[in-house]
Amino acid sequence: MDPFIVDPKDIVYFVLGLGLLGLTALPMVCGRRLISVPTIYVMAGGLLAFTPFAMPIPNPLDGYTQVLIIEHATELIVIIALAAAGLAVDRTGGLAGWQHSIMLLAVTMPLTIVGVYLLGVWAGLGIGAALLVAASLAPTDPVLARSVAVEGPNEGDEDDVRVSLTAEAGLNDGLAFPFVWLAIAVAEFGGASIGESLSAVAGDWLVWDVGYRIAAACIVGYGAGWLVASFVTSRHGDMALGGANAGLVFLGTTFFVYGLTEAFEGYGFLAVFLAARAGRNCTRGTDNDTYASKPHAFGEQAEKILLATLLVWLGTFAASGLLLDTSWREVGLALALVFVLRPLAGLIALLPTRGDMFQKLAIAFFGIRGMGSFFYVAFGLATASTGAFGDPEPIWRVTVITALVSIAIHGALAPIAMAHIDRRKASDVKNVAAQKSA
Q1: Mean pLDDT, to the nearest integer, of 165-174?
Q2: The pLDDT value given to residue 1
Q3: Which of 16, 138, 152, 281 counts the highest number of beta carbons within 10 A?
Q4: Mean pLDDT of the chain
């Protein structure tokens, strides 16, 4: 046996170990430079594809099993990110506190879906494929939006920009699901036009995919989250042990709520976020207020481990030859979404809300796309009948290009924008204090 033949298993351990160690140092190295940690990991994955250390990765273009692997890997990181996001926000819900997020959901998301659908058809996608891409790229990603999100419970960094983007990412990743189901229904119907297809499937879609599934997610998610939180903070729960099992509580609650909701045919993503919100509401303002930080910290660690792996996968997948047949219209779709469509749709929604123009522009612009989009594409392709969406390669290509653009641009600009917001907030606090003392 040749002693210099490298076992692929060893490569996986080496790359993953180096990647996880990098997460502890790279944030300090990047600072406010125009390159982010996710960008570095994607680049590393791309470069590794051309070396002997290239990791064996699942390629969703190689068959149904590979698509399922991507679906479940991205599903896992999204539900963990959603649970962490739900715990992070201290601000109570309501129209006043969450007005920006509500407008983003009610106005920006539908406008974005319509806009991306039209761009998708222009780029050469079929009506079903264009609708799947639109539904997949419309939500702000709860995973990669961490750079513009609230840091965690009791951190004191809850300005309108961070709260709005955190809440939007938590809610819209679940509310995008009805449009993924709509894309599946339209693709399987196979109508000659979008109007014909929508008229045929809209009734069942509105009743089941919009009405029932959202209601089930809200009821099961919030109810189960409240029950678990009540037990955890009781004299029999983990709170009585000083939070020794906070990680188990986080994963157990997340998986339990997700599985229960999905069993009732509700949207598990939405339910997980609402369950975390229920848990935060149970502890806020009580003697147990500090407990939420412990499961949240574990959730962040678990999310980072999965994210490092998936970013390397993304870079390797992008460098595997996927982008060789990219058309200028596909690139145009991605650029239009990141630089025009999302910012414009966001600004339209936010004009009547409170805040100055810089805050509204920041909220509108930082609609980061990422892992959630890959889940929706994989889910749609795996769930629909074979061939319903036509050739899957353009769908993956557009999604990957958009994610790469978003990771590079939003990742570079987010630290600068957030630092500017923090300086303005500190200045406002100083001015108020000076006025009081005058």
Answers
A1: 88
A2: 47
A3: 138
A4: 89
Alpha helices in 176-245 (DSSP H): 177-189, 194-204, 213-232
Among the listed residues 327, 252, 239, the one whose alpha carbon sits nearest the alpha carbon of residue 291? 239
What stretch of H or E contains 127? helix 127-137
Question: Of 44, 81, 151, 147, nearest to 307 (Cα)?
Answer: 81
Q: Residues near 173 by Cβ (< 8 Å), separated by ≥ 6?
A: 78, 82, 139, 140, 141, 142, 269, 270, 273, 372
Q: How far apart are CA 270 and CA 280, in angstroms?
A: 16
Sorted by sequence, the CB contacts under 8 Å of residue 131 that are 6+ apart come out as 117, 120, 179, 182, 183, 186, 187, 194
Indicate if the pLDDT at residue 32 is higher than 60: no
Domains, in order of start, for the chain: 1-57 (no CATH), 59-307+325-424 (1.20.1530.20)
CB 266 within 8 A of CB 256: no
Residue type, 231: F
pTM: 0.93
pLDDT single digits (tens) 57-72: 899 999 999 999 999 9
